[in-house]
């Protein structure tokens, strides 16, 4: 069996290698990411908001088009020409030039405009909802990137502390005050801490990449200086009576109701009036022609479209009922989660303070030989867990603020859109 004297240099060398690797892990930071407010001001450039804006512009264009009357129809007709007998050639022909126009009676144009206006109103509300959702997604990605950065810093600090504890254990092993097993355990703990650091670095880089993509930044995000997870939520902001989803459902119901009336109007005859001039070649004379035409609703009375519009209205009414039933419950639940998350942050901060003091006293006691390495390891693990729990509590508070802000129709940590 190898002697303990041969194993001790291996432990010291292993810890030295871990310390050197730790020193090399620190990246060269570039410029920090813009603040959350700066990114929020650029929210209109994101694909989701651009799509919602384009759909609203399309709805507005359909309103303008709905106001336009149908074009008149110009017709030219020749009769009694190029036949046989007295109608040979064009000498006895009758030529008629006419102009016909759809009169759009029964309120057809007004019903069409009302449907287009209702759909434009729905598109406007959906645009507002898309802006709120984009702001919430930005806040979440920003907070997750900041939390990942903090977890990486905590993992780096945990590795440093673990190496320091391992060195202290090796010193006691050299002095014969601790068995060789403690050195082996310390080396294993340092390797595990190094692996945790690598994992935290990968999570941080992935979170930074997501933030770069969501915020549509030209340069990759490499650090965050303007904190969001430490900010107090704006949960006390006054909110409108209805959630954005309820307002969208109400607009959809109104548009469905307008479509019923439009289909009813379409079932009535489409009256067309015409006026023209007729030329009589044989008599070398002209005369005016007047006409009025309308289809006979014997077969197509638009019953199917009317029934379909009524069914769509019932569906929209059901969606509105469901949205109203869920709105109040969702808001109360979001407010409760936000209050709980605020309390959780306070408790987590108190836990970190207690864990830091416990670890400090454990380290002093371990170096003095009054407590074992197992107790030191336990207090160190409790400190690492408490610090990570504090980050998790802050991230949960951000998520609760995002949920409540969406129900209130505003950007997280901000005012109404």
SSE blueprint and pairings:
Blueprint: H1 4-25, H2 36-41, H3 47-67, E1 73-79, E2 94-102, H4 108-174, H5 180-214, H6 244-266, E3 272-280, E4 285-293, H7 303-367, H8 373-408
Antiparallel strand pairs: 1-2, 2-3, 3-4
Helix pairs in contact: 1-4, 1-5, 3-4, 4-5, 4-6, 4-8, 6-7, 7-8
Helix-strand category = alpha+beta
Under the CATH scheme, the architecture is Up-down Bundle
Quickly count the helices. Answer: 8
CATH class: Mainly Alpha
Largest sheet: 4 strands, antiparallel
Percent helix, as a range, is 55-70%
Sheet-strand content, in percent, reads: 5-15%
Shape type: elongated
SSE series: HHHEEHHHEEHH
Whole-number total of structural domains? 1
Name of the CATH superfamily: Outer membrane efflux proteins (OEP)
Number of strands: 4
> What is the first-to-last residue Cα distance?
73 Å
Describe the model:
The chain has about 425 residues and is of the alpha+beta class. It has one domain: Up-down Bundle (Outer membrane efflux proteins (OEP)). It contains eight helices and four strands, in the order H-H-H-E-E-H-H-H-E-E-H-H. It has helices spanning about 5-25, 35-40, 45-65, 110-175, 180-215, 245-265, 305-365, 375-410; strands at about 75-80, 95-100, 270-280, 285-295. The protein has a four-stranded antiparallel beta sheet with strand order 1-2-3-4, with no helix packed on it. A hairpin with a 4-residue loop joins strand 3 (about 270-280) and strand 4 (about 285-295). Helix 4 packs antiparallel against helix 5 and helix 4 packs antiparallel against helix 8 (about 375-410). The two termini are about 75 Å apart. Mean pLDDT is about 85; it is low at about 1-30. It comes from Brevundimonas aurantiaca. Keywords: Signal. InterPro entries: MdtP/NodT-like (IPR010131), OMP_efflux (IPR003423). This is Cobalt-zinc-cadmium efflux system outer membrane protein.
């Amino acid at each position: 069996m190898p002697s303990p004297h041969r194993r001790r240099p291996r432990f010291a060398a292993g810890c030295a290698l871990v310390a050197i690797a730790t020193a090399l892990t620190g990246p060269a930071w570039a410029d920090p990411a813009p603040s959350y407010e700066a990114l929020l001001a650029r929210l209109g450039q994101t694909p989701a908001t651009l799509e919602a804006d384009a759909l609203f512009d399309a709805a507005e264009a359909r309103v303008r088009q709905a106001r336009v009357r149908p074009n008149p129809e110009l017709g030219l007709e020749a009769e009694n020409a190029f036949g046989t007998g007295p109608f040979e050639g064009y000498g006895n022909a009758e030529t008629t030039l006419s102009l016909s126009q759809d009169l759009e009676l029964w309120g057809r144009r007004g019903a069409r405009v009302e449907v287009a206006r209702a759909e434009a109103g729905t598109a406007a509300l959906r645009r507002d909802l898309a802006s709120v959702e984009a702001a919430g997604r930005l806040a979440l990605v920003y907070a997750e990137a900041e939390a990942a950065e903090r977890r990486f810093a905590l993992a780096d600090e945990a590795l440093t502390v673990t190496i320091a504890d391992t060195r202290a254990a090796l010193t006691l092993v050299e002095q014969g005050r601790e068995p060789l097993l403690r050195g082996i355990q310390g080396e294993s703990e340092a390797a595990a801490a190094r692996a945790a650091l690598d994992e935290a670095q990968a999570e941080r880089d992935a979170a930074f990449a997501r933030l770069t993509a969501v915020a549509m930044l030209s340069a990759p995000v490499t650090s965050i200086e303007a904190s969001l997870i430490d900010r107090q939520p704006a949960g006390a902001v006054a909110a409108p009576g209805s959630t954005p989803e309820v307002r969208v459902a109400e607009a959809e119901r109104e548009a469905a109701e307008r479509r019923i009336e439009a289909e009813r109007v379409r079932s009535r005859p489409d009256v067309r009036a015409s006026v023209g001039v007729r030329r009589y070649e044989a008599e070398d004379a002209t005369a005016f022609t007047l006409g009025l035409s309308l289809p006979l609703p014997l077969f197509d009375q638009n019953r199917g479209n009317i029934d379909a519009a009524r069914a769509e209205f019932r569906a929209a009414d059901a969606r509105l009922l469901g949205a109203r039933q869920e709105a109040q419950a969702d808001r109360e639940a979001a407010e409760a989660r936000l209050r709980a998350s605020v309390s959780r942050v306070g408790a987590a901060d108190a836990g970190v303070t207690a864990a830091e003091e416990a670890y400090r006293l454990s380290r002093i006691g371990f170096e003095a030989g009054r407590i074992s390495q197992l107790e030191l390891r336990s207090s160190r693990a409790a400190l690492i867990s408490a610090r990570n729990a504090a980050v998790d509590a802050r991230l949960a508070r951000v998520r609760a603020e995002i949920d409540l802000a969406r129900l209130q129709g505003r950007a997280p940590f901000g005012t109404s859109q």
